[in-house]
UniProtKB/TrEMBL annotation:
Keywords: Nucleotidyltransferase, Transferase. It comes from Borreliella japonica (Borrelia japonica). It comes from the Bacteria. Pfam families: UDPGP. The keyword Thylakoid does not apply. This is UDP-N-acetylglucosamine pyrophosphorylase. Signal peptide: none annotated. One of its GO terms (molecular function) is uridylyltransferase activity.
Length: 488
């Protein structure tokens, strides 16, 4: 199979590496880590029961979406309208026709099933469940992660895939909207695939829409052709020759390794789709990673975006000690909010030292909600200024460096972004590595206590993960829990 490689971008990166313009550990200057003491941070977790917004802003913004918005204005206090949590949920549902849901689906499962990375995450669990890991790698190792099982049932059978769950969720929302407001609409969906994943995903969607898992909730007749798709080209990887020189990384048969350069390229790859969505009447886009089971529509977040007219909203929750990979909220040297990736944008030692002093950090939940009008007006500038990260990799095929543009680093390019603190258990349940998926599924229940105690954690945390997964599967995806298997 011949894959399209962005040779111009690849050559530009090679020149910048060899000139020293970019490099490994090119960390951003950070002033401090805000937690709850920043004006752009808004807590929309379940423990917050009411919210207040400036009357002028509310009236100016709601009239963009509703002829008569007075039904939403049930309570006031001075210059503010008061909204209960439930009222925000209902408002968000009413805004569903203005939303398009974007699935970042470009990742092949190179890291997910990589034996070296999984072993490094937890040596004890890897040894104990090596046979299961090898079984999955044999069956799904060549597939995009999005079409592999999102969980394992208690009887050891495969669960439904990440992508199938996302489509089912959107169809359930469309049915809920119709039930409340009497209008049938198709959910608006778009995705970014890559040259390595597009053919697999296209075939998967052909089969998915004739499967009862989707047919049972597809009252609006959504089909594959309704999903906007753009394909991300690949970028060459590199190897370090000495302290200042790089060349393209080759492996078997002198083939140059080429991989997708991160979901942060979506602004470039999906630009035409974003313009098309705006012309069709959409005013908000949600983007998130396919492998996060917690990435569903947050109606409170959508309502807040409409009420405030902010450029964007990013979900964060408090970082746990086990969050070794991902982004944390920070204020940079230019006094702008930013999301710095641990290891790529900031050293893990700085993060560890900050936490060791008893400080809390806000951890990125890998979802972005964008005001589409703002986005298309600024998209060329965003594409030009998106940071480029050089990441050291140590995998089965060897040591090399890859290029990555991290989606959530767009935060620092946004004017007046909202930082929405959320309930982690409902919004963030990713599976970056296969062992993560086993832990989320509590498949390791019988022996996890022993293994996790050796790592200094409490085995109850793994049951918490499974409780989160169970709640999401039943509420957001409409599945039914049997004695050993989830059904619909």
């Amino acid at each position: 199979m011949n894959f399209k490689v962005d040779k111009i971008f690849s050559e530009m990166i090679l020149k910048k590496l060899n000139s020293g313009e970019i490099g490994i550990n090119n960390f951003e200057s950070i002033k401090y880590f805000p937690c709850d003491n920043h004006e752009n941070i808004l807590n929309i977790s379940d423990k917050i029961l009411s919210f207040k917004f400036n009357k002028g802003f509310v009236e100016d913004n709601l009239k963009k979406y509703f002829r008569d918005y007075s039904e939403f204005l049930n309570s006031e206090e001075g210059d503010y309208y008061i909204f209960s949590s439930c009222e925000l949920e209902n408002l968000g549902l009413m805004l569903f026709p203005y939303l398009s849901f974007g699935i970042l689906n470009g990742g092949s499962a190179t890291s997910y099933f990589d034996l070296t990375k999984n072993r490094r995450l937890n040596e004890d669990l890897y040894v104990l469940y090596e046979s299961k890991i090898l079984e999955f790698k044999e069956k799904f190792g060549e597939f995009p992660k999005g079409i592999t099982p999102a969980y394992i049932n208690k009887d050891g059978s495969f669960g439904f895939s990440f992508l199938a769950l996302k489509i089912r969720h959107l169809l359930m929302v469309a049915k809920r909207y119709e039930s409340f407001y009497g209008r049938r609409i198709k959910p608006s969906v778009f995705q970014m695939t890559s040259c390595k994943t597009d053919e697999f995903i296209s075939k998967f969607l052909d089969d998915l829409f004739v499967d009862d898992f989707i047919k049972s909730v597809n009252f609006c007749n959504l089909n594959k052709e309704d999903i906007f798709t753009a394909v991300q080209p690949l970028v060459y990887c590199y190897e370090k020759l000495n302290s200042s020189n790089y060349q393209y990384f080759t492996f078997k048969d002198n083939t140059i390794l080429a991989l997708p350069a991160g979901h942060g390229q979506n602004f470039k790859i999906l630009k035409d789709i974003y313009l098309q969505l705006y012309r069709s009447g959409k005013r908000f886009i949600y983007i998130g990673n396919v492998d996060n089971v917690g990435f569903t529509i947050n109606f409170k977040a959508l309502a807040v975006m409409a009420l405030t007219n902010c450029s964007s909203g990013f979900e964060f929750s408090f970082k746990s000690k086990t969050d070794f990979k991902g982004g944390v909220l920070a204020v940079n040297g230019e006094n702008r909010l930013t999301c710095v990736d641990i290891g790529g944008g900031i050293s893990s030692e700085i993060i560890q030292g900050f936490e060791d002093k008893g400080n809390e950090l806000l951890f990125n939940c890998a979802t972005g909600l964008f005001n589409l009008e703002y986005l298309i007006k600024n998209i060329d500038q965003i594409i030009e200024k998106m940071p480029i990260r050089i990441i050291e990799q140590d995998k089965e095929i060897g040591k090399y460096v890859s290029v990555e543009q991290i989606t959530w680093e767009v935060l620092r390019l946004m004017e007046n972004p909202l930082i929405l603190t959320v309930d982690r258990s409902k919004r963030f349940l990713p599976a970056k590595l296969f062992i993560d998926m086993l832990l989320n599924s509590n498949y390791l229940e019988d022996s996890c206590g022993y293994c996790c105690r050796k790592k200094g954690n409490n085995s109850s945390s793994n049951k918490d993960l499974y409780c989160s997964l169970s709640a999401l599967l039943s509420k957001d995806y409409g599945l039914i829990s049997g004695c050993c298997k989830w059904t619909f």
